[in-house]
Amino acid sequence: MQQGNEDSDYSEDYWIEWFLSIKGNEYFCEIDTEFILDKFNLTGLNTEVVHLQMAIDIITDNFTHTGPELSEKDREKLEHSASHLYGLIHARYIVTSRGLQRMMEKYKNGDFGYCPRVHCEKAPLLPIGLHDMPHQASVRLYCPMCEDLYVPRSAKHAMIDGAYFGTSFPGMLFQVHTYLVPEKTTERFVPKIFGFKIHEHAKLARWQERKRIEMEKKIQKFEQIKEKKKNSVN
Ligand SMILES: [Zn+2]
User: What spacing in Å lies between the alpha carbon of 173 and ligand 1's midpoint?
Assistant: First the structure.
């Protein structure tokens, strides 16, 4: 961010553009300013974001500050509020039709990475939250092929709050754009030892054990009969 003059620190930049360009923020899409300015979309966020109005002004490039210059600490606090607000609005935006469209483009582009599972053959992933409330858990990546969750590989991505994507986003995307649902693979990895499937091997071991017990019983019976015969002869 450029240092502006003392009464306007942010207005020379496009805050959203700057935010999206930060390394580690690649999972976020651009939110329309009209969406942010619609008070209805911000319902309940005043308890979650400190200095909500200032944060809104920052991310919509309307922030003007008059009076004594803000301290570095205050600037940091405001910047943090603005980023947190962007994340929380983001979760709401990406389940709207326009937001879904933007995220779908990123998904097709592989912006969220690919499934590390071999049999998923590099299926693109989608970000998902484990909770809708912030500060609970960081973002996870959902693979629509194996329907499992993964931790992002990059430490910067792994630190992002999962609430900035929410729990419903992938479900919503596939409900609206059903053609995106990938064909599931039935292929599974089967562990083997020297070419033999492990469960086959275990089955064989169990069969051998059963046969051994049966054989022991047979011998016992035979011994008893032999003993009886011996007694009757005597
Ligand atoms: Zn997968």
Answer: 17
Annotated domain spans of the chain: 15-93, 110-180, 192-233
Report the CATH superfamily, name and number, of domain 15-93.
protein kinase ck2 holoenzyme, chain C, domain 1 (1.10.1820.10)
pLDDT, tens only, 116-135: 999 999 999 999 999 999 99
pLDDT score, position 5: 40
Residue 138 DSSP SS3:
strand
Distance of alpha carbon 211 from alpha carbon 177, whole angstroms: 57
Residue 58 C-alpha to ligand 1 middle, in angstroms? 39
Q: What is the whole-number distance in angstroms between the Cα of residue 174 and the centre of ligand 1?
A: 16
Given the structure tokens 């097709």, which residue do they identify? 108
Q: Does CATH place domain 110-180 in 2.60.120.10?
A: no
Q: How many CB atoms lie within 10 A of CB 111?
A: 17
Which segments in the chain show pLDDT lower than 70? 1-13, 234
Predicted pLDDT at 1: 42
Residue type at 233 in one-letter notation? V
- Please state whether 84 falls in left (phi above 0), alpha (psi between -120 and 50) or beta: alpha
Q: How far is the CA of 119 from the centre of ligand 1 (A)?
A: 7
